[in-house]
Structure formats: C-alpha cells, structure tokens
Amino acid sequence: MNHNRSQHWNIVHRLYVGAFAIFISFASWASPLYAQAPKEWDPKRTWVFVIGVLEWIDPNIRGFPKDHRQDAELVETLKTRGVPESRIVCLYDTEATVARASEAFDQILSKTEPDDWLILENLVYGFKGDPTMDDDANGFVTLGEVASNILEDMTFADDQMPQYVMTRPLTSDVVISKVAGLAQGGVGRRVEVLSNGEWFRALVKDREGDRFLVHYYGYPSIKDDWVERSEIRLLTKLTFGAGLIVDVESSGTWYPSKILAVKNGLHLVRYAGWGKEWNEWVPASRIRILQSTK
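Given the sequence above, the corresponding structure tokens read:
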C-alpha cells in the first residue's frame, strides 16, 4: 500500500458516529419471502434530523477530519433512497448549538404525524443494503441487524460502547433495505490486517478465493484494499472478570474502581466515590490489576 496508514491512524484512531434523529413511518411488506417482517421503511414519509459534530471548543477533545464524514454520507444515502430534501434538516459543527438544535427539533416535530417513529443510530450501511449487515443471510437488513453490527464495530475497532434507542412500536425486525447478493464465507468478519509492518483493525467486505477486500476502520472506503489470507489475523481482546477491584486510567490519572460487567471486550467500571453517572466502558489497556499485599 502506498499511503501512510500509520500516520493517518494516529490522527483518526476512533470511529465517528454522529447523532441522528430519523422519523419514520412504515408501509406494509407484501413479499411472501419475508413474512416475519410485516413493516417496510417508507422514504417518502420520512423526516430526518441530523446533528453532526466533528470539532469542539475544548482543546482537550480532538476533532476529526471532515472528508468523507459519515453523517453527510448518511444524508446523501437517504436522499438516494427517496427521502424528500424538504424533510431533511442538518446541523453541522458550529451550527449545532444547543439553542439552534432545540429550535430546529421543535420545528420538525411540529410537522410530523402521529404514526411517525424515532430512531437514533448511524444507518449508512443499513440503508445501502450492504451484505455485511445481513447477519442471517436472508436477503434483508433490519434495524436489529444494524444495531448489532454497530455494536460490534464500535467495540471492536474503537473500544467504545455505543447506545441506540428504538421507540415503541418500532421493533428490531423492521426491514430498511434489500441486499443485492449474499455474502461469501468470511465476509463481515472483523479482523486485523498487516500493512507496512503494522496491524490495523478492519472489516472483510468481499472475497475472491484466498484474497479478501478489507475496509480499514477510520478510513474512507477509497482506501479499501485486497489482501492475502496470510495478511489477516483474528483479534482476541484481553478481559478481566466482573467484580474485581482495580485501578482505571482516566486523563492520565489512575482511580480505584470496580468492574461491574464485561461485554465485547470492554469493562463497565464504577469509580470509587463517584456517582453511577460516571460509570464508563473501558478496554483492558486502561485497567491496572491491584497487587496483593501480604
């Protein structure tokens, strides 16, 4: 590979997932091939409210490059799928003040109908019908599959635990796209790929024999690359057991803490003397096991 992936990774070492509010109503699903999903997303009845922030006033919070930003890609994908531009409101970076967002949100709420629903998530690949999102390989992508894949991506590539909300009666079996073809064996697997002497986390997007097309987390899709099987390895994350009393690093300082739960290679910790609102999901690299004293 000719580009300096290591330098770019130092700049963008985390995935960006913006805040998206999408109001959706559904039409009946008529296909007998998928009787379990009676609801289908209707783009003509969709309202989209997007807040995307890639820069902050606080110098301690590192910004993100604005090329190929995911929030803008989601908006363009929804337009392509048929969402009217008049039903889309976007506030990016300095536009996304609390006052302006609140005002714009109230305006869009006043235009929605009673049978519209609310989703919070990054749905780019789901709305595109990407085969890697079709976990059960039935030819359809549901909201539940999108949520599951985002959880896997964020915990695997970025050591972050994402959150999403589905309001009733919206359910995880709602179909948002059809998949053009079925994924081959190994496609959709999260791996590490050797490039220029370093290992980088990636998602397998396609396969031809023993060659794999991989998408590097934190990079635009134009950087996707075909690699050999010998350049791929699985990643096993170190974890500690729930209930342990440990030290956890935060902003360069170690704090006594307790591990409350373990999920997808991350640990939910509670900092001693701090309220539960400060609980945090952290990787093993931020945990220090206390040495026993005898």
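The chain has three domains: 5-178, 190-233, 245-289. Try to locate this feature in the token string yourself.
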